[in-house]
Design goal:
This protein is α/β, with parallel strands linked by helices and 434 residues long. 26% of the residues lie in helices and 28% in strands. It has helices at residues 9-21, 25-38, 162-165, 189-197, 233-251, 284-295, 300-308, 355-368, 388-395, 420-432, and strands spanning 42-43, 55-61, 64-70, 80-86, 91-102, 105-113, 126-134, 139-149, 178-181, 205-214, 219-221, 227-230, 261-267, 311-319, 342-344, 373-375, 398-407, 414-417. 47% of the residues are buried. The structure holds zinc ion (ZN).
Length: 434
């Protein structure tokens, strides 16, 4: 008899640690792997030959992680149950020649990643984190977790029209952070600084993927602390809940008899269309699942049978009804913070959910004892999308779009209900347990 794990506010406390420790997709997959290792998962290299042993394994590739657990009793054609998510968030990323400045200010040249609410990046103390590639072929995660950069907003005295016409920001001219004083701009300054900060020899760094982030720690908010404010909730809420649900599923009694192979698939590059070797529109997930079938002695027929019986819950954030803009939402579908996970529907396949998918999610929520809410866009508003339709179309896997309703999506600091993350984790665990 399998017993469902129960997550509570302790899960939300852990989410806040996860958010703080994961300023970039590379850090997010490291945070996920660290928790999975504690649950007995072991990393496998894509370049090695795979064997058919049972237990928990994971593949790391850049900002993506695929983790899966082969139960003792699994056959080659045993279907998968997948929790899908994405690790990336909109932000400001360092350009190839970052060292710039003017009028006595040193600046770092940045490119805009995805669709951030640009205003939310103004006048925030920013840290700098990412991945350095070294001359010897190795890579290092780095994180300068202190106030290092800032994009200063123009004083209102210099532009009174912000009060009447709203703030207008030019992505090139107005979003370049300052990081010090000085007139001489030396090419290589920023990278030399990062080498020194991280004890790396001068000139050893030959490549980088660096991004800025708000250093303000996540926190509970509200009269009764019933909300959480923090960065990158879209979509680390789902990466964290999926990690916790998978770890709990494989460490619960009865894991050896699971009827499915539970999987966590967290991808990079959702915010700009998922088309990369670590994005949902690449071959990564299909390749891992297929290799697992073949490593267990399966045939093409076994793979086809396994995929045909597989279901993916694509978990991502959605929009809670905003009290100041309720007219932008559908008049009768009003997801609330604190109301439990959301099921996302769009008949034009911006979300992959259909009636059968709804039934799978409803059953998981019922087993978990959590309520769920329905999200659909106002017909006059464009609908967002997720990795759900991509996963369904690319791999032919039945997919259901779900998630957590938040406010301020794509802000440098978003807002959600403090109980929704653990309700999501309970629903995901019930789903993975079949
Ligand atoms: Zn998202």
């Amino acid at each position: 008899m399998r017993t469902a794990p129960r997550f509570d506010r302790g899960h939300t406390d852990d989410l806040m640690s996860f958010l703080a420790a994961s300023p970039t997709p590379y850090h997010a997959v490291a945070s996920s792997a660290e928790r999975l290792e504690k649950a007995g998962f072991r990393q496998v290299e894509e370049t090695d030959a795979w064997d058919g042993t049972t237990g928990g394994k994971y593949v790391l590739r850049g900002g993506a992680i695929i983790a899966w657990y082969v139960p003792e009793g699994a056959a080659a054609h045993t279907p998968y149950r997948i929790v899908g998510a994405h690790t990336d968030s909109p932000n400001l990323r360092v350009k190839p020649l970052p060292d710039s400045g003017a009028h006595g200010w040193r600046q770092v040249a940045v490119e805009i990643y995805g669709g951030p609410l640009l205003n939310s990046w103004l006048d925030r103390d920013l840290g700098l984190a990412g991945r350095l590639s070294l001359r010897d072929g190795s890579q290092r995660l780095v994180d300068v977790d202190r106030p290092l950069l800032r994009v200063p907003q123009l004083a209102i005295h210099m532009d009174r029209s912000v009060s009447t016409d709203g703030l207008k920001l030019d992505k090139q001219r107005h979003m370049q952070p300052i990081w010090g004083l000085g007139d001489d701009v030396h090419e290589g300054d920023l990278i030399r600084f990062l080498e020194a900060e991280n004890g790396i020899g001068e000139g050893e760094v030959t490549g980088w993927d660096l991004m800025t982030y708000s250093i303000e720690a996540p926190s509970y908010l509200g009269r009764d602390r019933e909300l959480v404010a923090g960065p990158r909730m879209d979509n680390l809420i789902s990466v964290h809940a999926g990690t916790a649900a998978l770890a709990a599923t494989v460490t619960a009694p009865g894991a050896a008899d699971l009827p499915y192979i539970p999987v966590l698939a967290a991808f990079d590059h959702e915010e700009n269309g998922s088309q990369s070797d670590t994005g949902a529109d690449g071959p990564l997930l299909g390749s891992v699942l297929e290799r697992s079938v073949f490593a267990r002695g399966g045939t093409y027929e076994d793979k086809a049978r396994a995929f045909a019986g597989t279901v993916c819950l694509s978990s991502d954030t959605g929009h809670a009804v905003h009290p100041n803009y309720a007219e932008r939402h559908d008049p009768t579908h009003h997801p609330r913070a604190g109301g439990g996970p959301i099921l996302k529907v769009n008949v034009n396949n911006r979300y992959a959910t259909d009636g059968g998918g709804r039934a799978v999610f409803a059953a998981a929520c019922e087993r978990a004892g959590v309520p769920f809410q329905s999200f659909v866009s106002n017909n006059a508003m464009p609908c967002g999308t997720t990795i759900g339709p991509i996963t369904a179309a690319r791999h032919g896997i039945k997919t259901v779009d779900i998630g957590v309703a938040i406010l301020s999506m794509h802000s440098a600091r978003e807002l959600c209900g403090a109980d929704d993350p653990h309700m999501l984790a309970n629903a995901l665990a019930a789903f993975l347990q079949g």
